[in-house]
Amino acid sequence: MARRRGSKGPSPDLSRTLTDCTRRGDAAAAMAAFDDAVSDPDAPTRLAAHQYNQLLHLLATADRSSFPSPAAAAHRVFDHMLQAGAPPSEATITSLARVTAAPDADNPASAADEAFQLVATMKEKHGLAPRLRSYSPVLAAFRRAGDASKAYAVEAHMAASGVSPEEPELAALLDVSSTAGDADKVYEYMHKLRQTVDCVSEETAQVLEGWFRSDKAAMASKAEWDAAQVKDAIVLNGGGCHQLGWLGTGPWMVQRVRAGADGQCGACKCRLACVDIDMEETQRFADSVAALALERETKANFSQFQEWLEENKEYEAIVDGANIALYQQNFAEGGFSLTQLDAVITELRGRYHGKWPLVILHNKRIAKLMENSSNRHLIETWRANGALYTTPSGSNDDWYWLYAAIKLNCLLVTNDEMRDHIFELLGSSFFPKWKQHHRVKYTFNKGKAVLVMPPPYSSEIQESEVGSWHVPMEEKSGDERVRIWLCIGRTGICKVPDKVPTTNGVVQEVPPNEASNGVQQSLQEDKAESITGKRKDRE
């Protein structure tokens, strides 16, 4: 827009004042400087867009005790911005929505509606795409107002804009659903929370505790269900949930407990699951690896491997042969150690009742190794037992062992961190979780292979086959031994733990009057199995 006649450009003095006020959090002084700058009717100062944003951000974070009416001031700044032809940004609208939807608004419900309107029309009016931070204050305002239907409308608009809620937004949706007594919505958001975060904050934990201790939660029930269907659903979902609704009847008991090193809950004594990616995700992951491999490898060679693998599926483990044989061989007499590779194979066979793993090695390695008679004997033994696949000339064996481990859904023995360009190509959210639960690292002690197996359980939200829940809380130290879990189950399932954990010296215990008799069977303390999803039972 053309500069108005008689107007002055951005003032250096104003810039310094706004920067200083922002540093001090002094909204009143900033607004006084703004009013002085724009009050001259003959030659008003023209503000830059970023100065308007500075003011709006300052007003959105203003201390209400020193500046009691920031919303009115923010709208005045925004109106001036539009009149001056300064282009608003997403940050502009977000700050305005934030100050409009503030907790101390004169009419909270009306303010929440106005803030939502600002965000919802951002694209249409200004060509701007809202971000998660644009929606958060609006969702928080509807949460405070207890208006569940409008909170759901915000979530729907987020989805239409391609914005996914994170833990604070999901906690708000859980809370407003809990207040409304909408058990189906609470269940829906429990699973969205499970898919979004591994561990929850203290605030989210309190929201969950509030719901499960409510009468509405006790009424959300199912007295009978198909146990086989539930188990199948858990396997299909990777071991961590069934998503078939609230199981069981009666009140819930909520306890803060710790899990043992083997994953046994300190309250109900059930074993936490080792949660994998689900079957559909596994298939998509395998397909994406195969597609990339077929682009980069000789197509006929990799296709032949895929066909061979379809006919040879009964492996418990895939072995990255080169990674093991070259482990710590960077010394003068070091080389390609088949002895190390054989030690790993021996250890795996000992674990799986003599069953052979599948070793992937490049054919150039094999050709050279076969020149030595002792090596030849080992290699011929592996071949005779179907334990060796040699990749062809010009191939990268990484594609072969990775695809095999994913496709057969089994363990992968390698110390490779899988961080190089090949794995960056995957760009998959599945990969870190898959690696955590399938990769077996190794070392050697006096020539014997020592395998470091995947963790026995997953620190993530879990829903069991009897309808109980286990929710891990954030643990800043990263020490799983001290992590607090919410054990949530019908009162017939849960037991009061021998030792009740404390947080900041406060005992986290459910008062006795909140417990009553329940109906579901308890998982036995000596139950050795855990639900491991798609991964086969392993010793």
Automatic annotation (TrEMBL):
It holds the Pfam family PPR_long. The keyword Manganese applies. It comes from the Eukaryota. This is ribonuclease P. Residues 514-523 have a biased composition (Polar residues). It comes from Panicum miliaceum. Residues 261-487 form the PRORP domain. Its EC number is 3.1.26.5. Gene3D superfamilies: 3.40.50.11980, Tetratricopeptide repeat domain.
